[in-house]
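Ticket #4471: structure export looks truncated?
Reporter: QA, pipeline team
Priority: medium

Steps to reproduce: submit the single chain below to the structure queue and open the exported record.
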Amino acid sequence: MSEPKYTKEYSIKLKVIYSYMLLLYIPAAVITILFKNIWRINTLSLNILSLNERILFLLLIIVGVIIHELIHGIFAAIFSSNRFKNIKFGFSIRSFVAYCNINEIMKVKYFKVIAIMPFIILGILPIIISLFFGCKTLFDFGILLSIGSIGDLIMFNWLCKEKNNYWVKESDNAKKLEIVVFEK
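Actual output as written to the record:
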């Protein structure tokens, strides 16, 4: 097999991702105002929640983050020739980031699915469902997990610029999001 011909390296520091995350609060505020006006209720009003409700909401977000990474892993295992053998889950205390690292090359078309599915399943769907049923907790959950998906959205954007039959290798660098896309 010949040496791969690299086409593009993508990299972004976590500090930059965090600043983009802050920018997502602007559209989130607009959607929150829409939700509030449709259902005539307060949203993200932690000041009116009891301590138990705040703890429960925090636990819900933590479970959501864990499920988010599991969704990455499940879809990676679906597309992987080794299933879960080359998939590593973890949490970086230093960077305060949960992660699912895929230690094998995959086609761009599969990596796009792996990158975007947690955003769709835990972000977009809960927001849409909450808009129909007026469920404030589900709405807040969807908004916060959508904002937390910014790294996935950045990666998805990078991958959309590449050909589906190209290959992707993900870095396991805890300080930045980094992938290499290449043609075999």
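Status: closed, not a bug. The export was complete when the record was re-opened. Leaving a note from the reviewer for reference: The helical segments are 14-23, 25-39, 51-79, 108-133, 136-147, 150-160.
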